[in-house]
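Please check our next protein.
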Amino acid sequence: MSLDHAFRTRTPPEIKWLLNERAAVAGTLQRSIERQQSLQRRLKKLQHSLVLCAKDLNAAQETQIGSRRTLEALDVAIDLVDKRVSPAAAGVVNATQGKYGESGGLRKYIGQALEAAYPSPVAMVDLMESVITQFGVKAAAPADRKALRSSIRGALQWLLQQGRAEPLHAKVSNNSGLWRWKAEDDFPSFEQMAQDEWELHRGE
C-alpha cells in the first residue's frame, strides 16, 4: 500500500476538509498575488502615460498663451495697416505637419530605430543617414547636417530622459555618438509610448 493511499484512507474526514480548504485558500492567494503583480505592471505603464500627459498639458497651455499674445499683436498690426481687413480673413492654417511628419515624428522614428537594433547600439552617423533616407531631408550643406544632428540629438535626449535610450560613446573610445535602446522589464515599449502620445494628441 502506498503512503499516499494510506494517507487518503486513514486521514480523518475533518483533517481532509481542513487540508482541502487550505489548498483552496492557497490557490486564491496565488491568483491574488498574480493579479496584484499584473496590476502593478499596468499601474507603472499608466503612471508613465500620466507623466507624458502632464508634460503635454503644460506645453499646450504655454503654447496657447504665446499664440494668443501673438494673435493680439498681429490683429493690432493688421488694423494699423488697413482697418478694412478682417484679421481672420485668411482663416486657420494647421502648421503642425513638419519635415518629420506628425508632431513627435522624429522622436518616434529614432526610438523605433534604436529598438529595432537592440541589443546592438546605433551610431549617430547611421541615424542621420537613416533619417535623411526616411524623410527625404536635405543635408548636403554643412549647416544642414549640423541642424539635422541637433534635431536627432534632441530626440535622443528626450528618449534618455524617458529612460528608453542610453549613450555608449562615453564608454567607447574615439566615438562621439553611439546610442542603444534601453529595455527594461515591465516598461512600455516605444510602440506603446507612441500610442500613448497619439491618444493624447488625437483630440487636438
Observations:
- The mean pLDDT is 80.
- The CA atoms of residues 112 and 191 lie 8 Å apart.
- Helices lie at 3-10, 13-81, 105-117, 124-135, 142-161, 190-202.
